[in-house]
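Structure request: Selenocysteine-specific elongation factor, Cyprinus carpio carpio.
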Amino acid sequence: MADPSPPKTLNFNVGVLGHVDSGKTSLARALSSTASTAAFDKNPQSKERGITLDLGFSAFTVPLPEHLKESCGERQYDSLQFTLVDCPGHASLIRTIIGGAQIIDLMMLVVDVVKGMQTQTAECLLIGQLTCSHMIVILNKTDLLPGDKRQAAIDKMTKRMHKTLENTRFKGCPIIAVAAKPGGPEAPETDEPQGITELIDLLKAQAFFPRRDPSGSLLMAVDHCFSIRGQGTVITGTILQGSLSVNDNVEIPALKVTRKVKSVQMFRKPVPSAMQGDRVGVCVTQFDPKLLERGVVCTPGSLQTLYAAVISVQKIEYYRGALTSRAKFHITVGHETVMARISFFNQVLLANENGDCNPTSPEQNAKSFSFDWEFHHLDEYLTCQAEGGNGEPQQWALLEFERPVTCPPLCLVIGSRLDSDIHGNTCRLAFHGKLLEGFEDKNYTETALPRLKISKDKQKEGAVERVTDDYTVIGRNLFKKETNLQLFVGLKVTLSTGETGSIEGGFGQSGKIKIRIPEGLKEETKQLLSSSSKKKGKGGAKNESSKSEETKPDAQPVTIHLNFKRYIYDPQKKMVQS
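Returned structure:
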């Protein structure tokens, strides 16, 4: 007789984030029944300090809540498994959190009820806003509050948290008070945690049917790797997209190798296949596990390895520093964090009939980047204040990575300054965006960047030295003696008196130029130039020169203006005038 089909479990990933020492691991332990791989800090350094250094995973299963039975449709699940992703609260490990947050359906933000919001609580909240749409706030360590004032203190902190969340996407989210480990880490295990049953009920009520799609290429975020003698190497992680089955071939892009899947387990139970959102252990043919502690596994050939990328960019409002071109930032992309140099640019906007600059049209926004568009180099990111408008103009950035990174197309990018003071009370997350275009060629500066039309405006100013005839003047101070004037021949210039002309070539050896004025010089310009050259001349009685100064009290030299732009990545360094 055939086995009845095994019970089907829906996996729901809950991220446990918060400031260091807010009690996240104790909370996960109180909630959990099954501890998986890294769960509860296998790291000796972490055991000593009681702090999570890596993404810990553990899980507990409950019968499928009624409201989910209706939304499951065809797929019949009978239980709901909460996989708890315990993200480190250590400031220096923020890159691990960013890695973990990309696989989270719901976030539990753990706050020490005595201390309230702290620097890293705020950073976790920001990461949550970029990567997750549902949150529960947990006020932990209520056992530290004196019994008679406990409820009043909880109410006060609840009110404060609601106010903090008012302008975020988590406005009005549920807030619950618990004591995950009464008496602190040293207390005996006999002290029952408080508020955990209520929290499990709240989690069940908040759980939803996450968007899971088995189609498309496989992408799995790996968090641990170890070998089992005689069997192969086990990779544990969460499937971010697609699905995987026994006997599939998978690629480990970081090692440039392909391996065959021998078996798949979900929380120690063997399964034939797994799909997006599932937390799995995958045994593949042997390789050295030390080479892959973190990273990704994918369908062979589906990921790109990039030396540089164009991203859309948006500054994080709490970041206090300036975002300047040529600066270096820590870039978290896919599951890697790498240093990169950044250059900002925006689109050259065309004014419409009303004189308003119309930013990108809806069709352009849908595409959100094209090599056909004209861009303008920015020395720094433009904020609303700088623009004097409301809403920041759309901006992009070129990231040049210090080492190649492997990531899926269109993935989230977060820029931070992880080298700023861990203990300083400042937000270290600087900007976020989407990866729009990646450069896989090592020689991208020669092969790809010339396609990127980013220009810089240049202005030069000089003066008319003298008139040769009605159609020609000689200019000085526009160029240095060593400038190659041939590059500038034919460019248009404007005189301060209104005439336009073009550069015919050099004059003499000192950087002077000959300018042709096709419409001819105006009478008043000729007078102005002759009077200023007379003033320079030694002849003429003193009273004459003083008279001419009376009639022309502000005889200014006639200036020459040359405006052009240069495309930064143009190998020919051509000058262009509109």
